[in-house]
Amino acid sequence: MSDLFNTDAEKASYGIGLQMGEQLKANPFEGLNLHSVFEGMKDAYAGDAFRVEIPEIQAAFEKINTEIQARREEESKVLSAEGVAFLEENAKRAEITVTESGLQYEVITTGEGAKPTADSKVRVHYHGTLVNGTVFDSSYDRGEPAEFPVNGVIKGWTEALQLMPAGSKWRLYVPHELAYGERGAGAAIAPFSTLVFDVELLDVL
């Protein structure tokens, strides 16, 4: 640990910097300049005259937001195409079942318990990845199963869980329409992402 921040005020001030840094990291743009960020903070905090006029700042924000949106749209098109290609190829496998909605699943083990309904609450273990294998969430890694209502999760899960007897473990291949769609979910799941889940239905509660 650093000995640069000894007082509570110094530690809290450093914490503010960490929070701001995390926010910038989560929403970066090409050319982001931390020195300019710091200079803006100093001027605002000291009450000094702004060195860039507000209309210029607003115009810069608008231009960068437009560039970010255009880049995200291009990235989304690529992800969408990759997901479609992945699912088309995956559907050719004999062990894959494709439902009317487009959900694909593979039965790993079949349990003998009851099937939940949309109104049920369930306890599950799961492991979620992108189609490239990147893990974005895993109850197995946390060492604790999750509990939630069947109708309180993404559409692909709601559909699959109602087909699974308790004690089953399935691998789900979820197209973006049945997952997080055009919006994605946080930094880990981009818009139009096809997702892969290992889902183990432990209990219907």
Automatic annotation (TrEMBL):
Residues in PPIase FKBP-type domain copies: 119-205
Protein name: Peptidyl-prolyl cis-trans isomerase
Reactions this protein catalyses: [protein]-peptidylproline (omega=180) = [protein]-peptidylproline (omega=0)
A GO molecular function held by the record: peptidyl-prolyl cis-trans isomerase activity
Lineage of producing organism: Bacteria, Pseudomonadati, Pseudomonadota, Gammaproteobacteria, Alteromonadales
PROSITE patterns named among the record's database cross-references: FKBP_PPIASE
One record GO biological process: protein folding
Keywords: Isomerase, Rotamase
Any Pfam family matching the protein: FKBP_C
Source species of the chain: Pseudoalteromonas holothuriae
Gene3D superfamilies in alphabetical order: 3.10.50.40, Peptidyl-prolyl cis-trans isomerase, FKBP-type, N-terminal domain
EC assignment: 5.2.1.8
Class in the EC hierarchy, top level: isomerase
Superkingdom in the source lineage: Bacteria
Family per similarity comment: Belongs to the FKBP-type PPIase family.
